[in-house]
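Format notes (please read before filing issues)

Several people have asked whether sequences and structure tokens are stored in separate files. They are not. Every record keeps both together, in the order shown below: the sequence lines, then the token lines. Line labels are part of the format and must not be stripped during preprocessing.
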Amino acid sequence: MNLQRPNANDATRTTNRSRSVVPGSGLCTRCEDGCRGNCEVFKSSFRGREVIYPGPFGTITAGADKDYPVDYSHLNIMGYALGAKGLPEGKVGNPDNTLFPMVDTGTEYGVTNKVKMRLPVFTGALGSTDIARINWEHFAAGTAIAGITIVCGENVCGIDPQAEFKNGKVVESPEMRRRVEIYKRWHEGYGDLIVQLNVEDTRFGVAEYVIDKLGVETIELKWGQGAKCIGGEIKVGSLERALELQKRGYLVTPDPSLEANQAAFHDGALKQFERHSRLGFIDQEAFMKEVERLRGLGAKRVTLKTGAYPMRELAMAIKWASDAKLDLVTIDGAPGGTGMSPWRMMEEWGIPTFYLQSMAHELAERLHERGSFVPDLAMGGGFSAEDHIFKVLAMGAPYFKAVCMGRALMIPGMVGKNIGFWLQEGAASLPKAVAQFGNTVEEIFVNYEELVTKYGKDTVKDMPLGAIAVYTLADKLKVGLQQLMAGSRNYTTSTIRRSDLMALTEEAASVSGIPYIMDAYREEAMRIIDGESYADLELDLDLSIR
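Then the structure lines:
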């Protein structure tokens, strides 16, 4: 566990001068008059509020690096030498019927109008940040051909420079229309496009617009996210744009209408303004009414995204979603990753993902024991690999259906896009990490010919390279997950259970309820040693891992 918290980080582009750092403050142990920088306090002394945020804005995503006492690395996955769960009807568990490529990694969520996905992952909310806008075609096309869901985040209509409003309501947004049409172009029936609503989106009538004009079927209500406990924000590099967004009703800071801030901007001291969303306030009656309103507008599915709040708010999210029979609740733990969130807030705010999922499972179990409907759940908060997917599904079984990935599903979109740029400049521009595999897209992308076989050469040539990269990462996640599932004798995601995990530390066991490694299957082991017949034990083992 990292006890030293430097008053500096790559995210804020700051460094401590001294190698010795005071653990509590993060300051250098010896601070000199005349120091030439560049810790956060030093930089904040002349750049002020700019240092709150990671940078440079628009070209980076940032993930907090706080080391929590317990995380998913404190769990290991069980592997068994017998059993096979989830085989197709009529199939018997034997070496010919249990090859790992036979594993079904598909999942589904929803109540009446279910969404099927080829892989139990979907994107985090890709909203109004530049990095989401610039790379959208890569993200959207990639998730569509991979057969997973993409979430179009908050404020897309509200910040669209070309958006048209009438009586305060959006009647046309070219940017939102572009986003929906790209996903629909490549969509094959697996996955979905979800449009998220915050306070401003609701006021602007975004749900009415996207359902009526664009044919969107799923709306997500947003209570928060794991990376921050305030509303979403972006940076704006134009005074005119800042004033426009302020006029639309957004909080813009520093206030662009003040003469002093305008002068600072013209002087060059003030480089950018910040556009913020409002904090929402939850109320059960209002929540139920809003869900019914959205369904009345024609939404086939209504989902909820909530953040790293205390157990009280988590209980409200799960119980109200149960009462409203929502199609999905995505729970996003700290510290998360984002295109723009206050850095220290990401580091120090909220319930970490491991603890938050443990709470959510306990609450879902209690709801189930009372005979109530338990909505499908998904977990977000720093996941990037196939073992993360397995552990989330297992620890949250049988209620958690998928994993929400933020930065991990954005990276391939950017990588593929940039490989395309480098190839246009000539093979010499390729980084060594890429060039070692070749200097054509056919050589570089291991799944390229697979896509050509499926779609045809001309169609694949039209695909954004970032989309091919997203598909390639999804394939890696799928194969890796298949291997983990086969080893734990799960041939469908619905059979994964908590008993497929063991806790490596007693603290992880205490938090999660997953058996400590020295206790897992101890009872069965002792019965074997005591000479119990295999026939009786086999039945009990089969029941214990269903």
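For reference, the curators noted about this record: The chain has four domains: 1-52, 68-231+283-498, 233-276, 499-544. Confidence is low (pLDDT under 50) at residues 542-546.
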